[in-house]
Amino acid sequence: MSNKKEIEKMKDNLKKLESEIQEKNDEIQEKEDEIIKKDQEIEKYKEQLLRLHADFDNFKKRTEKELTDHIRYANEKLIIKIIDSYEDLERALKSGESDDLQEGVEMIYQNLKKVLEKEGLEELPAKGEKFDPYIHEALMTEAHDDFENGEIIEELCKGYKLNSKVIIYSKVKVCKKNDA
Known about the structure:
The chain has helices at residues 2-72, 76-95, 98-118; strands at residues 121-123, 136-142, 152-157, 160-162, 165-168, 170-175.
């Protein structure tokens, strides 16, 4: 009988082991399913990342092209406004008569001045003004009785500002009295 008991005991152990093996197999299958699911998620994220990267590259290229085009054609509107004056100047030069030429050039000067002023260009005041290093460039100095020390005697070259930014400094001669 002891053999029979042992066989029964072995059968029970075998069943337990088979049950444990089945549980472990089920756990393994669960983990494999989880791994497959995670791998699929990883692939999905990789594809999204690649698409985002491609979209960003396209955006960057498009933005660079737009910026380049914007810089290239930034003066288009100003040039269109100046073309009429340019053509007027050409016609004035072809006329050859001095009265017509003088009148034509004066008209062109006035048209160009209006266009530039509308675009925000202003002449900087100089002669008789107090020297300001932020808008004037002193090229010469001279002691002069009719002007105070630091006052601008003569404007050698006009200066301009575009809106509030100085784009060309006035080149001037400034009164500098020698203190003896």
